[in-house]
Amino acid sequence: MSVQAEFEHALLSDELITPSGLHTYNGSDPAARFAVYRNNVLSSLINALTDTFPVVQQLVGEAFFRAMAAVYVKANPPSSCLLVHYGSDFPLFIETFEPAATLPYLADMARLEALRVQAYHAADAEPVAHEVLAGALGDSERLGDLRFQLHACVHLLTSAFGVRSLWAAHQGELAIEQVDLGTAEHCLVLRQHLDVLVIGIDADSAGFIGRLLNGQTFADAARSCAPDFDLGAALALLISHDAITALSYRATP
Amino acid sequence: MKQSVIAPSGAPHVCATNLPAQAGLGLKSQHYQAILASLPAVGFFEIHAENYMVAGGPFHHYLGQIRQHYPLSLHGVGLSIGGAEPLDRDHLQRLATLLERYEPAAFSEHLAWSSHGPNYLNDLLPVAYDEPTLARVCEHIDHTQTVLKRRMLLENPATYVEFTASSLSEAAFIHDVVQRTGCGLLLDVNNLYISCINHQRDVQAYLNELPLHAVEQIHLAGFAEDRDSSGARLLIDSHGAPVDDAVWQLYAELIARLGPLPTLIERDNDVPPLDHLLAEAHMAERVLARSTAR
Asked: Which residues, 6+ apart, have CB-to-CB distance to B139 below 8 Å?
């Protein structure tokens, strides 16, 4: 094994291995000194996860979080030096992490927090001007083929649990007594100006916005909604949050 | 802005940095608004390149505004110049894109490795100071300077172990790298102090062996203190504490010897309010002013 392969193996191993070929001026055990690197690697990567998943940490406590994150880090070291994206599959890991099984909503909370980071760093784009949008919506001949390009920061999360409310409670926006964990919730995660917002929405709005995100035309996305769906309100939600960044038309055959 | 050029070894000395010989601060996101509100009197800000390799959002928004008021130093932590494998071309391209966008006055990276195979280990890991490593490091620096079309500064490491395979001293190794690649040096005085304590090196002998003419920027930071298995001091480059008195002393001696140099106060962990860092920058300014007045 090369020196660096040996280092890497020792850094990520569960056993306290020390690479060969190390030297200390005073004959002290290189293991104690190598431990500084092991600790740097583990703790800095765990800290990176703490930055991305603060509410997950609040829910399980610091000691549990760091122990869980250490297991994840050793099995899933980053594949890139762009650590901002590190932990994108941490929610999936949490889902299968046996000691966390008593908190079935934990993985979805992690999904919500990962989406917030994605929204924070997503590419900038200007919203379509209101008069352009009004013109397109008033053009009844082409309305059936109109498509909305949504801002790169726009994400949806649907959870079988009340994670949106729970997240809001952890921001001090909601009393914890108001959180009903057993009720499914939908939320829209997006960045407006410089702030990332987590907005609770109903199932029909989530379906409609999800279809827009999948590239369906406005008309097709609206068609699958329930008869009493307030399309105007869903559209106003997107427009008021600068979420529509371009218009295009489906090529007619 | 003046474009730096690659200087082949032996060519007249061309500075890798246009940073002013003043104190600067590491730019932390928690200070963006305070900086823009008060526009403190510091010579420059330094960013970790990797933090700004994101598509958009607040980081670019604030950096763009701060760049309008201050010179910038771009400090990479993920290039893995000491790595056994070829450099990551995608990462070099991302660095080139950032350099083009923000036109920093300096670009620096570390004498260390951090990636192996598909994995990134997020620490500055040590290299053996032997001929094969020297050849590889020089090749990587040449490659970097060619792609980025500018000279880079190489930072001396803080290390906790040494390799039996090493045939050169750290300072001799750095000397040879500078001579062969024409790169400049970012002298991290904290790292220098840490490595001298951790490996019982004579700091003056170390400095005498370094190509001090190539030093174009200084880093100052704080360390944490531990003990090795024999009870000897083991200093850890934590970037989480104020600069130690011993490091200030060494810095003052260096500036008296070399003249004023761009000097960064680094703090990446337990980041205090901006005022605390400005106070440390002010201490560095006083040292620089004494040297100018001489």
From this structure: none
Q: What is the mean pLDDT of residues B59-71?
A: 98
User: Residue A120 and residue B58: Cβ atoms within 8 Å?
Assistant: yes
Cβ-based contacts of B161 with chain A (< 8 Å)? 22-24, 30, 33-34, 37
Place of tokens 């970790």: B48
Question: Largest Cα–Cα distance in chain A?
Answer: 84
- Top residue of B52, B80, B120, B199 to mutate, by most chain A CBs within 10 Å, is B120
One DSSP character per residue, B244-268 reads PHHHHHHHHHHHHHH----EEEP--
Average pLDDT over residues A195-223: 96
Would the CB atoms of B114 and A81 count as touching at under 8 Å? yes
Alpha-carbon gap: B81 to the closest alpha carbon of chain A (Å): 13
ipTM over 0.90: yes
CB atoms within 10 A of CB A65: 20
Q: Do A124 and B119 touch (CB under 8 A)?
A: no
| Cα–Cα distance measured from residue A112 to residue A118, given in angstroms and rounded to the nearest whole number | 10
Using one digit for the tens of pLDDT, what is the confidence trace for B173-226? 999 999 999 999 999 999 999 999 999 999 999 999 999 999 999 999 999 999
Give whole-number Cα distances, B69 to A92, A177, B66, B114, B288, in Å.
Answer: 43, 48, 5, 33, 22
Task: State pLDDT tens for residues A141-162.
Answer: 999 999 999 999 999 999 999 9
- Identify any residues that bridge with A199 across adjacent strands, giving them in sequence order: A188
Which residue reads 């690197």 in tokens? A37
CATH code assigned to B23-293: 3.20.20.150
Per-residue pLDDT reduced to its tens digit, B227-279: 999 999 999 999 999 999 999 999 999 999 999 999 999 999 999 999 999 99
Map out the domains of chain B as residue ranges: 23-293
Is the model's pLDDT at B4 over the cut of 50? no
In percent, how much of chain B has pLDDT > 70?
94
CA angle B27, B29, B32 (to 5 degrees): 80
Window B:98-137, CB contacts with A under 8 Å: 113-123, 125, 128
- pLDDT of amino acid B9: 41
Mean pLDDT along residues A173-200: 96
| Measured distance CA(B233)–CA(B125) in Å, rounded | 20
